[in-house]
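> example.struct
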């Protein structure tokens, strides 16, 4: 579920929500709107740029898959939201094919709307490595459901642009920032802290993606049939279906390794909101590679 609601927000009772977008700031994601040519009735496109900071690099050498999907969700979700104003959106599915795990950075994202319907929006996103002359890194599709924002107020200048945030010394690793508990094996737990929630109180879709990354890697390392008994793994191609919002927590990712061949494991996962009656909130699959 994307957190991209800009400006000061409030509900009908006058409550104010945090507008700092700490998830986007953690990855230092820069975004800019690309309006259509004058006289052309078409949605805007959206660009993005994210550095690959040392503390966010995974075993593959570049921005780990969970971070990449977080940026895809932030760019794609906001792009879809612009397309349906004054309504807004919530992410319902995200699929990414990742072709490169080792990145120099910065990574550049470009998104465009493929379909703008009454109830849903579909967008395509491409990611390239500017540090390697535009080498393709990932191709993704994101689907968002259109929703009534209620009393939320979204005020921002058009064309929209946010600068790249500065690097903060001592920034934590993704597991710490996303409040993912230490552990090994097929079950991994996340505590949905306040900085991981959007103005509706829903857990950011990128936090779910990072949980899927970490959980799938832990399950693959512990699972049978690994080509390398020791060594590192990295998440790659990922499919996530957001069935319901995470509102309570803690959140558990329960994984099953369903296949392994030539250094590539396929991990199926089910994510549950334990505090909300253990309801199923996300289903997905992650390809985990020996690196």
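> example.seq
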């Amino acid at each position: 579920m994307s957190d991209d609601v800009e400006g000061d927000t409030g509900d009908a009772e006058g409550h104010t929500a945090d507008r700092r977008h700490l998830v986007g700031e953690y990855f230092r994601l820069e975004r800019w709107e690309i309006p259509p040519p004058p006289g052309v009735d078409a949605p805007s496109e959206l660009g993005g740029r994210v550095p690959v900071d040392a503390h966010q690099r995974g075993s593959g050498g570049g921005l780990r898959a969970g971070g990449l999907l977080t940026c895809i969700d932030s760019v794609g979700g906001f792009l879809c939201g612009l397309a349906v104003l004054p309504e807004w959106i919530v992410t319902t599915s995200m699929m990414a094919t990742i072709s490169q795990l080792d990145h120099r950075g910065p990574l550049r994202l470009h998104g465009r709307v493929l379909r703008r319907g009454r109830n849903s929006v579909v967008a395509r996103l491409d990611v390239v490595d500017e540090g390697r002359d535009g080498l393709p890194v990932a191709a993704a599709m994101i689907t968002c459901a259109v929703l009534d924002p209620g009393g939320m107020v979204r005020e921002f200048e058009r064309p929209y642009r946010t600068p790249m945030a500065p690097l903060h010394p001592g920034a934590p690793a993704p597991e710490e920032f996303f409040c993912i508990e230490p552990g090994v094996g097929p079950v991994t737990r996340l505590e949905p802290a306040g900085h991981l929630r959007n103005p509706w109180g829903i857990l950011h879709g990128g936090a779910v993606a990072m949980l899927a990354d970490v959980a799938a890697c832990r399950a693959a390392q512990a699972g049978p049939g690994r080509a390398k008994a020791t060594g590192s793994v990295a998440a790659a191609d990922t499919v996530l279906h957001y069935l319901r919002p995470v509102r309570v927590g803690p959140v558990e990712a329960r994984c099953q390794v369903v296949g392994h061949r030539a250094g590539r494991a396929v991990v199926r996962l089910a994510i549950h909101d334990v505090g909300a009656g253990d309801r199923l909130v996300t289903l997905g699959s992650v390809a985990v590679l020996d690196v």
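> remarks
The chain has one domain: 9-159+174-290.
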